[in-house]
Amino acid sequence: MHAQSTGFAEANGINLYYEIYGSGTPLVLIHGGGSSGSFDFSEIIPRLSGQYTLITIDLQNHGRSDHRYEAETFVQDARDIIAVMDHLEIGKASFFGFSNGASTVMQLAHLFPQRCEKIIAASGMSKREGMIDGFFEGMQQATLDHMPAYLQENFLKCTPDPVRLQNMFFRDSQRMIHFSDWADEVLQSIHAPALFISGDRDVIKPEHTAAMSRLVPDSRLLILPAGHGSYMMPDEQGKVDHLLIDSCVQFITRFLHT
């Protein structure tokens, strides 16, 4: 599906790439680590563009956006998203974040409550114990060769620069290796209605997703029979479970409409 419009917005010293689809109330889509907006939400965009104005944003070091050569943080990503919203003159929106994008969306709802209508946090985390056993040990040993080929190919399609690909991988992996647990007050401070989603075979433990949802005063929880994101995108083998994704989208639209 082709975007209706694309562009770059200045965000705290760098330019971030965005795409806009559909019409209706704004829903901002935030991708996961190593990816880009239109890639992670390729199955979601055609299913929701008839009901919402969808805005995908490539975060720093990802997709077609500029790079920073300093540590990535979820707080910085949240501030960058707000800058893109300001550029687009969007005062308030709902947000749908996947994986690292979900963690970014939670920080955004914490830091900028006046800009959040509702949030969907899919396969995000707030504490190290929320990841499957061995995750962080594996990250410490990981090299660019361990990054899935489809993510490398997507990056180079967007930005054909191997040096920047290496920077993206380094910044993303270092953010995870050095991740520090959030205080419970971060989630307790979120007053926007929230929907937490994860798969029962996700890299996020389902019990962690449930624990996060219990901390947010007005939240709902959805655990699906899926791996990391296969409820909203192709799985690691490129297979698309249309029935599963359709079911997930039905829950999302019901949440956004009520």
What does this structure look like?
With 258 residues, this protein is of the alpha/beta class. The chain has one domain: Rossmann fold. It contains ten helices and eight strands. The chain has helices spanning 37-40, 44-48, 74-88, 100-111, 135-141, 149-158, 162-177, 184-188, 206-215, 242-257, and strands spanning 5-11, 14-22, 25-30, 52-57, 93-98, 116-122, 194-199, 219-224. It has an eight-stranded mixed β-sheet with strand order 1-2-4-3-5-6-7-8, with helices on both faces. The longest helix is centred in the middle third of the chain and has 16 residues, at 162-177.
Protein topology:
Layout: E1 5-11, E2 14-22, E3 25-30, H1 37-40, H2 44-48, E4 52-57, H3 74-88, E5 93-98, H4 100-111, E6 116-122, H5 135-141, H6 149-158, H7 162-177, H8 184-188, E7 194-199, H9 206-215, E8 219-224, H10 242-257
Parallel strand pairs: 3-4, 3-5, 5-6, 6-7, 7-8
Antiparallel strand pairs: 1-2, 2-4
